[in-house]
């Protein structure tokens, strides 16, 4: 629950219904800029205004980053067992 609250306290703006109605254009501009707006009624969240991620109209070209970096040989080496254990929940 803490992660949920932390997310909403840092990544969103809380507004009451009256403010949401009175300044709707402002809050839509905030959403367009990438923020989320939580609308509250009597200090309880009831709605979330969030950006809609529109898919691209055209395909992205392949190879734009070609030649800008190299991948070292160590990248292809197996991970240490201790590291894999952490991903699989067996480590501490």
End-to-end Cα distance, whole Å, is 22 Å
- The portion of residues forming beta strands comes to 15-25%
The number of helical elements comes to 4
Question: Helix share of residues?
Answer: 25-40%
Write down the overall geometry.
Answer: flat
- What series of H and E elements makes up the topology? HEHHEEH
Q: What is the C-alpha radius of gyration, as a whole number of Å? A: 22 Å
Number of strands: 3
Structural class: alpha+beta
Q: In which order are the strands of the major sheet placed?
A: 1-2-3
Return residue spans where pLDDT drops below 50 for at least 5 consecutive residues.
6-10
Taking the sheet with the most strands, its summary is: 3 strands, mixed
Can you give the mean pLDDT? 84
List its traits.
single chain; 3 strands; 4 helices; 18% strand; 92 residues; alpha+beta; 3-stranded mixed beta sheet
What's the structural blueprint in terms of helices and strands?
Blueprint: H1 2-11, E1 12-16, H2 17-22, H3 24-32, E2 36-41, E3 44-49, H4 81-87
Parallel strand pairs: 1-2
Antiparallel strand pairs: 2-3
Question: Mind explaining what this structure looks like?
Answer:
It contains 4 helices and 3 strands. It is an alpha+beta fold. The chain has a 3-stranded mixed beta sheet with strand order 1-2-3. A hairpin with a 2-residue loop joins strand 2 and strand 3. The protein is flat. The protein starts with a helix and ends in a 5-residue tail after the last helix. About 5% of the residues have low confidence.
């Amino acid at each position: 629950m803490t992660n949920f609250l932390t997310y909403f306290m840092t990544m969103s703006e809380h507004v009451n219904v009256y403010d949401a109605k009175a300044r709707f254009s402002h809050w839509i501009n905030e959403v367009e800029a990438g923020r989320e707006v939580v609308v509250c009624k009597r200090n309880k969240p009831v709605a979330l205004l969030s950006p809609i991620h529109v898919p691209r109209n055209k395909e992205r070209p392949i190879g734009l980053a070609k030649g800008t970096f190299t991948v070292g040989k160590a990248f292809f080496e197996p991970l240490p067992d201790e590291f894999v254990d952490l991903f699989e929940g067996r480590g501490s």
